[in-house]
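If your schedule permits, I should be very grateful for your opinion on a structural question. I would ask you to consider whether the tokens describe a fold that such a sequence might reasonably adopt. Thank you for your consideration; the sequence and its tokens are set out here.
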Amino acid sequence: MLCQHFNILCILCIFGHQCLKGYCCITAERITTKITFSYNLLTGNSSQASLTKVAEIYEPRMKNLLLVLFQKQVDSYDINVTEDLGDIELVKIEKRKYWMQDDWYCKYITVKTPAGDYIEFPCFRWVTDDKEIILRDGRARLPQNDKTRVAKQHRRKELELRQKVYRWREWHPGFPMSIDANTHKELPRDIQFDSEKGIDFVLNYSKALTSWNLLHDQYFLLSLAEYVMQHWQEDFMFGYQFLNGCNPVMMQKSTKIPDNFPVTSAMVESCLERDLTLEEEVKAGNIYIADYAIMEGISPNSTDPCTLQYLAAPICMLYKNVQNKILPIAIQLGQTPGEDNPIFLPTDDKYDWLLAKIWVRSSDFHVHQTVTHLLRTHLISEVFGIAMFRQLPAVHPAFKLLLPHIRFTIAINTKAREQLICECGLFDKANGTGGGGHVELVQKSMKTFTYKSLCFPEAIKARGLESEEELPYYYYRDDGLRVWKAVQSFVTDIVSIYYSSDETVQDDEEIQAFVKDVCSFGMQDQDECEFPKSLKTREQLIEYLTTVIFTASAQHASINFGQYDWCSWIPNSPPTMRKAPPTKKGTVTVQHIIESLPDRGRSCWHLGALFLGMYPDEHFTEKPAKAAMEKFRKKLTEITSFIKSRNEGKKLPYYYLSPDRIPNSVAV
């Protein structure tokens, strides 16, 4: 019985002036449940500004056609046409609501011409309520290449509608701007998750608590890498994480001993293996610094009056030994040297040294979660996403290129603002920076956040770590550069198809508006961020688009998917500390360390909070663009094979930047 279905879909094709005779075949694919459809094929006049009905051309026997489509069903219908029709410029989809609401997701519409050619109209959008969607065919076009009034008007109206829906809002002063929505349900339907279950952070806490009760050891949770649990106290494991852990962006080559970190050669003499003084080791390029100065002055969590929580802003000196291993040789737990801020050394009592390393790992956790992860992948990708929806229509090649990477970024961030980083959220319950400290940390980090720091090769070079010969085994750098170059090559191929010269970039008012929106609104035009307000050359455009894609995919993968390996063993990455940093040597005991680490409840809250190149939604339909995508996939496959071969037999394999493990976006 068809009466149980409540939606009618009306598809209209708008034709131009070039003549075609014969029939049209409309193929539609839907991801939905039972739906009822009605097809109408209409003609229009491409010279008119409005889309007007001219003549109904479906056969009388199809007049009352009602169709029931099931999930992923594809149906094809021939419609005989007896009059001359022009080229199809637009397809309009109308959905009419009846007794019950039933949203409809349309992937694409394909029209077959009498000559046997297929014209594809990508949609990949939800048709909701009694609304209509007007589609262009899948060929990407720059704004300056649209000539007809219909095409220009459609482009303009699409952006006008999007700008009403995708509005900027300041969630906190000093933050990047975010979407104007309080909850996931308030977001535009096209960027909502199909199910919120997988991004329910509170639900994840319940699972973590259950896991805890099933295990014997207090800190052995989830699928932790056993190797980390067994070796976390070792200096090698501590140093290795600066290269290939889940926050491999903190270490930089030292060109001099910091003034506020008065380490002497005598202090670390027993650690140096080349018969050189500390100053000579610095000149030789063997000394590195991890400085957590950004943690200085951040307010510790005070939301629980029964538990005091503490933060530190340590400085750690690292040494590359003759075996090219990175080892810690000195740690100071505060930024201001003095008698109450001693420099801890490997030669000190083992518990003094262990606790000093734990404090560094705790500070690293806070910087990783709030700066490296939240700000520098999630929040900045949301800025790119909002600006994209506001300034780039679906027909723009940059929109087609970027959409798979940042489509659901806004949704995951909105959910995080609902449950994770909001007042009384999981950050407040689990982290030492909760209760406002995480907000201060983002605000402070924004003052040094630059566009160039998102460009992977530039970021590596700025820390003095670009040489594989000087610093081997830095797989984050090596694999990251491979993926960056692959993405850059792909973007270059796409840009070359649509932009013939630098002048073409300058004349593209939509890409210029996109870049300006990111800087002027998304980053609130902060002088320090140095984000470009315009692009002058194809080279600049390629770098910009590569940066957007890499940040949302590869960079996020590198600092997100190692969290369970490195952070689920709580002593290796404590989310909070319950005792103040030691101010004297020789006072630390095992009991002191246990009492410093987070308790069971906060550990569970912490655990509850915690693939590139695949384009299942094909927005590009032209053969050159499809060829570029296939070339990109092959290159990523080569990188995957190389990384797999390199990891064979390693106790600590590095696979976070293997392309087969990199999702397209941060929304995971």
